[in-house]
Amino acid sequence: MRASFFALVPLVAATLVASAPLDTRGNTYIPSFAKGGNAQSGNSGNANGGSVYNAGWLVDNTAYANKAGKGGLTQSGTAQGGSGYGGGGSAVSGNTGNANGGDVQNYGGILINGYKSNQAGNGGVAQSGNAYGGNAWKRGNSPSFAKGGNSQSGNSGNADGGNVVNAGGKIIDTPFANQAGKGGLTQSGLAVGGNGKGGGGSAVSGNTGNSNGGSVGNFGGIIVNGYKSNTAGNGGTAKSGDAYGGNAY
Predict the structure, then answer these.
(1) How far apart are the C-alpha atoms of 226 and 113, rounded to whole Å?
(2) What is the C-alpha radius of gyration for the chain, rounded to an integer number of angstroms?
(3) What angle do CA 67, 73, 75 make, to 5 degrees?
(4) Region (Disordered) spans which residues (predicted)?
């Protein structure tokens, strides 16, 4: 009896292989329940504009003096989870750093700010990458409980405009002096959950940072402000990404 059982094992195995479907090249296809791989993109650093600092007893800024740097671009990469019959892989995109505009700061006993001097930098762009959860593949009408992969986009940093600060005993601001930076763009990426017969993957979009306009501050005993001096920056755009949960077949 035992010998006959072991004699049947190769026969059953051969029957299963013979009945398995063929791939596009005519080779025997053995079903797999392997899951798609997970994906995670790295975090990005800061891309802040440089600042300008002046400190002395007499600070005389002539026309167009002191222009701070603009914020650049900081962006994390896209994350795409792999697909598989055993379930979709999850995807997480990285967080971004800040992209703030630079400041202009003057400190002294007497400050004289010339025409269009002290221009703070505008905010740049901070944007996290998109995240796409992998799909759980299905085999016709065969039962499957594999689930689509989850997705989560990263948080985006700040993209604030730079500030202008003057502090002294006497401050004289000529026309159009002291322009604060505008806010830039901070945006979190799109999040899309994977599809699966056992359920769709969840999707969570990241939080955004700030996109504030810069401020102008004059602090002194005597302050004389010229025509259209001291203009604060406008706010920019802060937008969180859309999130789409995966579908269940």
Answers:
(1) 10
(2) 30
(3) 160
(4) 142-162
pLDDT score at 23: 46
Q: Say how many residues make up the chain.
A: 249
Q: Could you identify the residue written with the tokens 């599809």?
A: 195
Per-residue pLDDT of 102-116, as tens digits, reads 999 999 999 999 999
pLDDT for the residue 17: 46
What are the CA-CA distances from residue 192 to residues 56, 164, 205, 241 (Å)? 55, 41, 9, 10
Strands 191-192 and 185-187, by their bridges, are unpaired
Domain spans in the chain, listed from the N-terminal domain onward: 1-30, 33-244
Q: Are 100 and 71 in contact (CB under 8 A)?
A: yes
Residues with Cβ within 8 Å of residue 225, at least 6 apart in sequence = 173, 218
